[in-house]
Design goal:
alpha+beta; Rossmann fold; Topoisomerase I, domain 3; globular; 22% strand; 7 domains; 34% helix; disordered C terminus; Topoisomerase I, domain 2; 24 helices
Length: 883
């Protein structure tokens, strides 16, 4: 028997079917060891020695693998075909060697680029050794990330209370988002005018031409800068005659794009499907690991973590056959197309993302997939097919027009294009970059126009425009930018963005990434005191060195030594800085958001409350805020990015909203260290209410403030108990309260609008979820994921008071922020359960062995009862799943 180790239990089950009973396929569930989250896990003074820790769930997996190895003939390491997969294989092998179960048994490494029977059997027939340079690159990357995080983060915590931490790649990605926000804030709009003529041909066909020259001078975009100029030119054209100077029809060809890489797949899924990067990878992972079709689980796409753009020869041939059958021979080029990537630091060791079988068309496979899987598979299939099709043939027509009015002349141009043969467009067309400004519309088809033809004026239109600031990054455009700069690796982009959101450094608003004050503070600190380490070129050059390690061209410890020598010395210098020096630097760096210009032109640093104090950044337990230098005599404070007035300008101090009609007390919108709030009255007796999540400062008026301050409100008496039902806003959101029992409401608006009947229903529904009329709520499962593959016991997804969670026995693991309960997979659930168990969760008790089995064991000579299994030791570090 041979033991095969893969990462995922779903993959293990499928591969075991392909390989047969001679093999035993076991899952590692991702990484089995990691660096403990404490100082000393990487020790530069000991030549970068690294301490690895195995958490409790991983210890059990490794124990199962070690037990199987005692009876096995060989070990086959078949983890994923990337750097992380190579590292997992290395970790598994190292642990098994420590357990002394390998001995002289052969160890082989195989990689499955696709989970199909052919791909698996071909890989098993071509084993290799563990790629040591690739493991070295992993060790270097892991050590670098650890050293930066655990050296830089404590400096952040001491100098910037409230800051979470700083990572090597995350900090540079955050800088990109913050730099773009700075560009937007500094942007000054410029007015300009565009002039277009609607003209009729001699055949009465109408088209539009735009002004390109006036009085012999070519016009640039901003040359017509005011209405007077525009009106002058418009008047001239309204009295002008128009004649066609030239017509040029130029045939062009548009070539297809290569098949998807990890990053281009994430970008296209964002633009076309609205998927986040992490959602794209989750769906792609499922397509890669396999879908049950006709009683057999089959992988539908190749491995989705890659920056290669080439397909295997047999895949190219299959695509060409499908093109001939599905589209016709005219759509198939004489020779196959070959691609190479232009991305910085790209490694093309693996195939592009493509279907495992081009004969499985999207229409045929759709019935086996859920909606998201079907949409992503269709996009992958079409892009891969299109990559092997002939170019689209397009005719681009340019018409130059002369206008004359007395001695004054002008030039106009009309552009149109016609698709003469659609080519690859028949399968797949690229969408315009979602973040690019709108281009001139040259896709319109022009009517028949002849040279020297006279044209009749129908109308002259002059339209006002203004220049626009650069758009905020979306996930897709940020990933594209990071790839262009060579920052990070494609497989880590989704995890990088999620980390920034989880730390509240950025938020995703309407698919745009907006830096939060905490993120801008961290970026400003790093740019002021660690500039080199957040430079784009420095980070990219470090990535190049890591790639050279994986190619065997550099020694990984040499790279670490070079980095650590400079970095540690710089950190030691910064440690000596006083907080006041840090704040002085940040006051200057963050002046545009900390001290925005005032309408009256007065000094934005002067305290608006006392008139004599100087405003400055202050550091508190919950982060940075703006405060007055005359504290405690003057208690003026506001958030770093302060409440806005609707136009993006910070509101200084308090904003009076009106008075309470019953108490005649003043109602004021304030901003404290914990965010904006409304207040009625003064002193200890003042009534206060924080703004609910989702409510914007600029939308708060007298009416909304009164509504907030009226909470909790009485809804009415319960018809059965006669006790009052009230609605209010609490720590965990909106609720109704009856007889000491709370029931959650869906939105804050429900608090103000809910009536007695609905409130009674909500309370009744809450009570109906109690098991046997008492004890803790027995919440109905939203989704059943099946039994635990090793321990038994049902795994379900449920909805609780604090949000959806995964349940197994007595272990409840809360879903990550933004994770939909419907999309949780069994692999994700097992990872969350393992992490929760490592922190002290209780697993279900195993069922006792049947008595008959115990008697049989005794008959075989067992005289002593088996020792009780010890409870797993609790360890603080939880296993980290792969991105």
């Amino acid at each position: 028997m041979d033991v095969v180790v893969v990462e995922s239990p779903a993959k293990a089950k499928t591969i075991n079917k392909y390989l047969g009973s001679r093999y035993k396929v076991l899952a590692s569930f991702g990484h089995v060891r990691d660096l403990p989250a404490k100082d000393g896990s990487v020790r530069p003074d000991e030549d970068f020695a690294m301490s690895w820790e195995v958490d409790s769930p991983s210890s059990k997996r490794l124990g199962d693998i070690a037990k199987a190895m005692k009876e096995a003939d060989s070990l086959i390491l078949a983890t994923d075909p990337d750097r992380e997969g190579e590292a997992i294989s290395w970790h598994v092998l190292e642990v098994l060697r420590q357990k002394k179960v390998i001995k002289d048994k052969p160890v082989r490494r195989v990689v499955f680029n696709a989970i199909t029977k052919k791909a698996v059997t071909d890989a098993m027939a071509n084993p290799r050794d563990i790629d040591v340079p690739l493991v070295d690159a992993y060790l270097a990357r892991r050590a670098l990330d650890y050293l930066v995080g655990f050296t830089l983060s404590p400096v952040l915590w001491r100098k910037l209370p409230g800051a979470r931490s700083a990572g090597r790649v995350q900090s540079v990605a955050l800088r990109l988002v913050c730099d773009r926000e700075g560009e937007i804030e500094r942007f000054v709009r410029e007015e300009y005018w565009q002039i277009a003529a609607l003209l009729d041909t001699e055949r009465k066909d109408r088209f539009e031409a735009r002004l390109t020259a006036y009085e012999g001078k070519k016009l640039a975009k901003l040359d017509i800068g005011n209405k007077d100029q525009a009106d002058e030119i418009k008047a001239m054209l309204e009295g002008a005659s128009f004649k066609v100077a030239s017509v040029e029809a130029k045939p062009t060809k548009r070539n297809p794009a290569p098949p998807f890489t990890t990053s281009t797949l994430q970008q296209a899924a964002s633009s076309r499907l609205g998927f986040s990067a992490s959602r794209t990878m989750q769906v792609a992972q499922r397509l890669y690991e396999g879908i049950e079709i006709g009683g057999e689980t089959t992988g539908l796409i190749t491995y989705m973590r890659t920056d290669g753009v080439q397909m295997a020869p047999e895949a190219i041939e299959a695509a060409r056959e499908q093109i001939g059958k599905g589209f016709g021979d005219r759509y198939r080029p004489e020779k196959p197309r070959f691609y190479s990537t232009k991305a910085k630091n790209a490694q093309e060791a693996h195939e592009a993302v493509r279907p495992t079988d081009f004969w499985r068309t999207p229409d045929q496979i759709r019935k086996y997939l859920d909606a998201d899987q079907a949409r992503l598979y269709e996009m992958i299939w079409k892009r891969a097919i299109a990559s092997q099709m002939v170019p689209a043939e397009i005719e681009r027509t340019t018409v130059e027009i002369e206008a004359a009015n007395g001695s004054k002349t002008a030039g106009l141009r009309a552009v149109g294009s016609v698709v003469r043969f659609d080519g690859f467009i028949a399968a797949y067309t690229e969408q315009k970059d979602e973040d690019a400004p709108d281009a001139d519309d040259d896709e319109k088809r022009l009517p028949q126009i002849g040279a020297n033809e006279s044209l009749a004026r129908h109308a002259i239109n002059a339209t006002q425009h203004s220049t626009e600031p650069p758009p905020r990054y979306s996930e897709a455009s940020l990933i594209k930018k990071m790839e262009e700069l060579g920052i990070g690796r494609p497989s880590t982009y989704a995890a990088t963005l999620k980390t920034l959101e989880d730390r509240d450094y950025i938020t995703n608003e309407k698919r745009k990434l907006v830096p939060q004050s905490k993120g801008r503070l961290v970026t400003s600190f790093l740019e002021s005191f660690f500039e080199r380490y957040v430079e784009y070129d420095f980070t990219a050059s470090l990535e190049e060195k890591l790639d050279q390690i994986s190619d065997g061209k550099l020694a990984w410890k040499d790279v670490l030594r070079d980095f650590w020598r400079d970095f540690s010395g710089h950190v030691d210098d910064i440690k000596e800085l006083r907080v006041t020096e840090v704040l002085d630097a940040l006051n200057e760096e963050l002046a545009p958001i900390a001290f925005p210009p005032r309408e009256d032109g007065s000094d934005p640093r002067i305290c608006p409350k006392c008139g004599s104090g100087q405003l400055s950044l202050k550091l508190g337990k919950f982060g940075a805020f703006v405060g007055c230098s005359n504290y405690p005599e003057c208690g003026f404070t506001r958030q770093l990015d302060g409440p806005g007035d609707g136009d993006g300008n910070a509101v200084e101090g308090d904003k009076v909203l009106g008075t309470d009609p019953y108490t005649n007390e003043e109602i004021v919108l304030k901003s404290g260290r914990f965010g904006p709030y409304v207040q009625r009255g003064e002193g200890k007796e003042a009534k206060r209410s924080s703004l609910p999540k989702g409510w914007k400062v600029e939308d708060i008026d007298h009416e909304k403030a009164l509504a907030l301050l009226s909470l909790p409100r009485d809804v009415g008496k319960h018809p059965e108990s006669g006790k009052m039902i009230s609605a209010g806003l609490g720590r965990y959101g909106p609720f109704v309260l009856h007889d000491g029992s709370y029931a959650n409401l869906e939105t804050i608006e429900d608090v103000f609008s809910i009536g007695l009947n609905r409130a009674v229903t909500v309370i009744a529904e809450k009570k109906s979820r109690f098991a046997n009329g008492g004890g803790r709520t027995a919440v109905a499962a939203l989704k059943e994921l099946g039994d635990h593959p090793d321990e038994g016991g049902k795994i379900t997804v449920r909805d609780g008071r604090y949000g959806p969670y995964v349940n197994w026995g007595k272990i409840n693991a809360t879903l990550p922020k933004g994770k939909s309960p419907e999309t949780v997979t069994v692999e994700e659930a097992l990872t969350m359960i393992a992490e929760k168990a490592a922190k002290g969760g209780k697993a279900p008790k195993k069922k006792a062995a049947p008595k008959a089995k115990a008697k049989a064991a005794k008959a075989d000579g067992e005289t002593k009862s088996a020792p009780k299994k010890k409870a797993a030791a609790k360890k603080p570090a939880a296993k980290k799943a792969k991105d």
